[in-house]
Design a protein that fits this description.
The structure holds 2 protein chains of 2 kinds. By secondary structure, chain A is of the alpha+beta class. Chain A contains 7 helices and 4 strands. Chain B is globular and about 80 Å long. The termini of chain B are far apart. The model of chain B has no long low-confidence stretch (mean pLDDT 95). The chains are: A alpha+beta, B alpha/beta. Chains A and B meet through helix 2, helix 4, helix 5 and strand 4 of A and helix 2, strand 9, strand 10, strand 12 and strand 16 of B.
Chain lengths: 157, 628
């Protein structure tokens, strides 16, 4: 973590409404988690108790206290996806990546997470990888999607 | 600066109806997830390579998500061709068609012969009605009446001029010449009720906030669309962001607020980006800022991104979240209208509610109240999804029956029987097939044990297990419970344990009674609306599908074939046509046989993944009780 970078992020957010959310959001984006030192610094600069920031950091699904992988695979577990086979997609992803939902691969490349609803219910079941949404998936499509993503990224995870 | 409506309108019309060929791609999130970006890039490349003088444009969601990606082709003054399920291969054919002025018939969903501008009532006719079918007469679109989604799929969401060309910001101009009381009166007369779930009369809410003492007030747009199964707000934000900005500005003027905040969930990055651009353009053109339309009224809009907490859809939790705290609800009263954001009077409406405001102001509350039922006025957007032929967003007058929505618009559930429809998300319930003629409005849905909610309609066929659906929702609410009050925090946990027991075949009959009592206790005792309604999925499925719970408990059998320990799959010889599709999809090679002969399923290899069940068009795969 770099103190100047955190200070820059804080300085970028001068707005009153949603300031904490904006700052923590940017830190999470940059480091893929909220480092403790960063939270301490934000607490000091904004005059907000660290306990409140810890509460916020652990309350919202988008924040994490340990680093997430380089690539984030989100499996939608909304209602439509659930009845159209999201559980089967999760199972095959867990098998393929050898991690459980909520975990990160040992090499730090992929984090697999379950999300509530990506709002693409008409294309259920869907997953998203780094924000790109894939719809109408069948379990047998998963290896291809993952392979395509690795290739695109030139990573050999 | 003074907004220049007429020159923007002219510019917008030129962009909407250019004097050269215009090809438009629906590039909202659902389109993109179906491959719209590849299609868009392929179109750009083809046009460039062939040196064609035509426009490749962007629009939002046309609603018919099942048929995405959708591409429109419009020759000057001619009807617009709408193509469905376009792949990069079809792009070449479309381009050749444009060059030869002879468009392909393949994947032609229909043609648009006329555009109507709802706000002004103007019609843009495109002659030549010969030949192809009209898109408006497609069963999916025919019964629809588009008010909140009137511009989605028509305009480029990144162009304020196109919004103005469809009557945009006329309502703001009109409103600012009226008194706030007159506006509130109009909204009251419209009978508009909150589209986010609560169904509280919008005009009354505004009136409370207006009458609350205080110099600083806020209006908030709740864009934290968290109900799984609903995505109309995303679609409106991505397809027509200015209608929300215009609605909020009118609302701000009516209650006396100068700041508007859009609280948008971070899962919708495209909506956030579209909103940012829209706010910028509205500011540049004088629709936001100081002294709007020379009225002396100033208004600004900010965006705050949510961070993934379902409970933040509840208005007091949403306010806490904007203030940088955990999104925990607080008891009401005081209502946000008295003491809301930073302790100031605050009015919160959701995206779809705001999107209805400009048409109400322009066409009058009476016009809006002319649609719908006695206590539910206007139209409602539903996300029609799940086990249904035509997935998509549909906007229909309140009071339209479930049958019309599911069968006429949705095209039914295919070879499998319709079993239930889930409305209202985690706070809602499952309505059984026997109530198919239920008119859909706030009262009727509540009477049936469900709720309107934000308009999610998840259709389920005979292979959905209602106990599993109840467990799904309780898992959801248990996980999303903020933990502040005990009935919700602990009660949902206990309910989940009971449901897990039932689904695993380990429950006894007294567990069912316990589940029901627990559900009723949480309903009475939880702090906020989310906790109070958390048991609804359990209560409604117990009401209509109790025998399914009992089968799980008494017979240790899941008749729908979902709960894995409680069923087996088998192939009914008399129904099997020997097509072999089941064997092709089986990941375990558990199904064997010869073409045109009945296939066999090896129980020992079967993992009950249901791939065969969902594939067989002859309903030859049967769900049977497990051998013990």
């Amino acid at each position: 973590m770099n103190v100047t970078e955190i200070e820059e992020i804080i300085a970028r957010h001068q707005e009153v409404d949603g300031r904490v959310s904006g700052i923590l959001g940017d830190i999470q984006k940059k480091y893929r988690y909220l480092p403790e030192e960063a939270l301490r610094l934000v607490s000091k600069k904004l005059g907000i108790p660290l306990t409140q920031l810890y509460g916020v950091a652990t309350f919202y699904a988008a924040f994490s206290l340990s680093p997430k992988g380089e690539h984030l695979i989100s499996v939608c577990h909304g209602t439509a996806c659930h009845i159209r086979g999201a559980v089967q997609l999760s199972e095959i992803l867990e098998k393929k990546l050898q991690i459980k939902e909520g975990e990160t691969t040992k090499d730090g490349k992929f984090t697999l997470e379950a999300v509530r609803c990506l709002g693409c219910c008409s294309l259920a079941p869907v997953i998203s990888i780094d924000g790109k949404t894939f719809g109408r998936l069948k379990p047998e499509d998963i290896p291809g999607v993952i392979a395509g993503w690795k290739e695109r990224d030139n990573c050999d995870a | 600066m003074m907004p220049d409506l007429s020159s923007l309108c002219r510019k917008g019309l030129e962009a909407l109806y250019p004097d050269k060929v215009k090809i438009t791609v629906g590039r909202a999130t659902c389109g993109r997830a179906s491959g719209a970006e590849e299609v868009y890039q392929a179109l750009l490349a083809e046009v460039k390579e062939r040196g064609l003088d035509c426009t490749v444009a962007t629009t939002g969601c046309l609603g018919f998500c099942q048929e995405e990606p959708l591409v429109c082709v419009q020759f000057p003054g001619k009807p617009r061709y709408v193509y469905s399920r376009v792949r990069p291969e079809l792009v070449k054919e479309i381009i050749v068609g444009v060059i030869n002025q002879n468009m392909p018939r393949k994947r032609l969903l229909g043609k648009v012969f006329e555009d109507e501008v709802l706000i002004t009532g103007e019609k843009v006719k495109m002659d030549d009605r010969s030949g192809d079918r009209s898109l408006a007469e497609n069963p999916f679109y025919l019964p629809q009446v588009k008010v909140a989604t009137r511009n989605c799929g028509y305009i480029d969401p990144g162009s304020i001029a196109e919004y103005v060309a469809r009557g945009g910001y006329l309502a703001l101009q009109k409103a600012l010449a009226q008194t706030p009381e007159e506006i509130i009166q109009e909204v009251l007369e419209s009978g508009l009720r909150g589209r986010g779930g609560g169904g509280f009369p919008t005009g009354k809410k505004w009136d409370f906030a207006r009458k609350s003492p205080g110099g600083v007030k806020y209006v908030i747009c709740n864009a934290d669309e968290g109900d799984p199964g609903a995505y109309m707000d995303r679609s409106i934000l991505e397809g027509d962001p200015h209608t929300v900005l215009e609605g909020m500005t009118i609302g701000g003027y009516a209650i006396g607020a100068h700041t508007g905040i859009i609280y948008c969930r971070a899962e919708y990055p495209l909506a956030v980006a579209t909103l940012r651009e829209a706010i910028k353009q509205a500011e540049e053109n004088g629709f936001l800022g100081d002294d709007i339309f020379g009225s002396g009224f100033s208004f600004r809009i900010e965006i705050v991104e949510g961070r993934g907490a379902f409970v933040c859809g509840e208005e007091t939790a949403l306010i806490a979240s904007i203030e940088g705290k955990m999104g925990e609800p607080s008891p009401r009263p005081p209502f946000p209208a008295e003491r809301g954001l930073w302790g100031k009077p605050t009015n919160i409406n959701n995206v779809e509610t705001w999107a209805n405001i400009p048409p109400i102001i322009m066409k009058g509350g009476k016009w809006f109240a002319g649609m719908g039922t006695e206590n539910s006025k206007g139209t409602k957007v539903f996300a029609l999804v799940g086990d249904i032929k035509n997935n998509g967003l549909v906007e229909v007058p309140m009071g339209t029956t479930l049958r019309q929505i599911i069968y006429d618009i949705g095209g039914g559930t295919g070879v499998f029987d319709f079993k239930a429809v889930q409305t209202g998300g985690p706070s809602g319930g499952c309505i059984p097939a026997s109530l198919i003629d239920l008119p859909v409005d706030y009262e009727e849905l509540t009477k049936a044990g469900a709720i309107m909610g934000s308009g999610g309609m998840v259709v389920m066929n005979e292979h959905a297990c209602m106990v599993d659906v109840a467990r799904f929702f309780i898992t959801f609410t248990q996980d999303e419970s903020c933990g502040k009050c005990l009935p919700c925090r602990e009660g949902t946990r206990q309910m989940l344990e009971l449901l897990n027991k039932i689904c695993a075949g380990k429950a006894e009959m007294p567990d069912l009674e316990l589940l029901e009592n627990l559900a009723l206790a949480i309903k009475d005792a939880a702090l906020c609306g989310l906790g109070q309604t958390a048991p609804s999925p359990v209560l409604s499925t117990l009401k209509y599908f109790r025998e399914e719970y009992e089968a799980h408990i008494r017979e240790k059998f899941c008749p729908s074939g979902v709960c894995r320990e409680l069923f087996e799959l088998t192939i009914a010889e008399e129904a099997c046509r020997g097509c072999g599709r089941c064997a092709e999809v089986c990941p375990q090679q558990a199904i064997t046989g010869q073409r045109k002969q009945p296939y066999r399923l090896d129980q020992d290899r079967c993992i009950r993944c249901r791939a065969c069940l969902n594939t067989c068009r002859h309903k030859a795969i049967k769900v049977v009780p497990p051998r013990r």
